[in-house]
Amino acid sequence: MEVLDHRTVDAALADGMVWERHGDELVKTRRGRDFADALAYVNAVGALAEEMDHHPDIDIRWNTVTLRLTTHSEGGLTRLDLDLAGRIDALP
Q1: Which of 30, 46, 80, 86 has its CA 20 to 30 A from that of 53?
Q2: In a domain, 36, yes or no
Q3: What is the pLDDT of residues 10-20, one digit of tens each?
Q4: Could you tell me if residue 1 is inside a domain?
């Protein structure tokens, strides 16, 4: 799998993705109503991650979830990260 250059990643982000690029990671923070809402969101993300066999780093703080995507095995961002990010963005 090919590591994407920053220009390609930034172009994808400019095309309406709700993520930020922090070096070689895509980062998204979502605030929910409460802890239960945050857990429901994490479970939905987890189902997508399992389906794609690609797993974000997840941080939960009461009603706030921060996701970080990168392809560790490739040492940077790949098409897999953009695809999973897009599917996560489609979650309610």
Answers
A1: 30
A2: yes
A3: 999 998 888 99
A4: no
